[in-house]
Amino acid sequence: MYAVLAGGVGAARFLRGLTAVVPPEEVVAVVNVGDDLDRFGLRVCPDLDSITYWLSGVVHPEQQWGRADESFTVATELERFGHDPWFTLGDRDLATHLHRTMRLHEGAPLSAVTDEVGRAFGLELRLLPATDDRVETRIVTQDGRDLHFQEYWVRERGAPDVAQVRLAGAEHARPAPWVVETLLAADAILVAPSNPVVSIDTILDVPGIREAVGQSPAPVVGVSPIIGGEVVRGMAHRLLPAVGAEVSARGVAAHYGELLDGWVVDERDEDAVDDVAATGVRCVATDTLMDDREVAAQLARSCLRLAAEIGPAA
Ligand code: GDP
Ligand code: CA
Asked: Do 246 and 152 have their domain in common?
């Protein structure tokens, strides 16, 4: 079984490749929930939903998140009431949030609801929220404001300079059922090319998860989300400096540090291979820009090959 630490779109693109080369039932993604928010009383889980929509083939093809063939009737009607439309939910997407919120109100944990949503979309892999507890990624800006991640990224378009990132509520959170068991039993733990700060760190910061990754005998192999010193999309280049990391394939590996046994960088960053290897992490370079399915599948094969070469800890 393969465990994958996963954010949103970068992870979804990677999981599409992985599930093409191993049986999808053997893939379990542990997904970031720090981005989750309440909007109009509905619980919205952007990373879980991005992966679900990608892997069920209903994702918006250009945007790469949300639903294809989407309409915004409800969002437009809401503007009538003077709501600031900073975070818009499409009509099709709303059905997912309505179902999830109803079930959460009935007392179902997020992990159970996530299974229901996955089944409804015909997912063959399993998605586990990192935690069923409420956690929230907060961005402290250099001008002294404390914003929800979505306020920083969507409302303010990632413009403010970032002083600090933290996972609020982490101290009371526990890993969702099966997260620790999955990590301990996995044949390999793969770190998707997701945002290191607001996707992967926010999974690892749930008490017990970083420890489980460290204790697991499984080799831990990550993929760099930085290609040629740049992000493919998103705001990792704005957040890495705030946590003292360099915006490079090498810098992200150093940020993950002892967690990693193997690191896959893009062929455009081949010069990083020796530096990373010198830190004791096995490193290979290959094409990691997963714009097409075949590249994503080849990348997954490279990760699994590296994991097999490293093997389980004695
Ligand atoms: P988000 O929550 O939707 O922002 O998604 P993630 O956290 O999963 O991923 C965002 C990160 O994925 C960004 O840092 C991107 O640079 C990276 N990313 C996206 N697509 C690719 C790709 O095809 N290859 C690589 N190497 N990184 C990617
Ligand atoms: Ca995200």
From this structure: no
